[in-house]
Amino acid sequence: MGENEYDEQVKESFTKFQKQMFESKQIIAMEEETKALKERQMDTASKILSRVKTVDDSKTMYRQIGKAYVVSTKEEELKRMEKIIRECEADIKKSEEKKKYVIRSLEDAQNNLREMVAAHK
């Protein structure tokens, strides 16, 4: 392989790596934002859950949907809050796994570029 061909190949690989790095940083930032949003949502649901547990069973409960209110029972609200918390925990776990995968693939691309440059020396 000629020197010019090798330089072009390294240049092309480096350009691809830069593009992948930029895209990876965007994905990581988006996953961090998603994680923070889900953590806030989970925190809110946990606080509501603890408040609903203190309410007497005989009290009528209302749940807001948009501008309307719907009559609900304490049991239904407890189940709904627990479901929200479980879903948020699952979403946070998925975000973490996706972030780890993106970081791992970025590290692999970086190592491949290093090996390509080191192999020519």
TrEMBL record:
Gene Ontology cellular-component annotations: cytoplasm; prefoldin complex
Superkingdom of origin organism: Eukaryota
Ranges in a coiled coil: 71-112
InterPro entries hit by this protein: PFD_beta-like, Prefoldin
SUPFAM superfamilies: Prefoldin
Swiss-Prot/TrEMBL keywords: Chaperone, Coiled coil
Record-level Gene Ontology MF annotations: protein folding chaperone; unfolded protein binding
Protein family membership: Belongs to the prefoldin subunit beta family.
Protein name: Prefoldin subunit 1
Source organism of the structure: Panagrolaimus davidi
Lineage of producing organism: Eukaryota, Metazoa, Ecdysozoa, Nematoda, Chromadorea
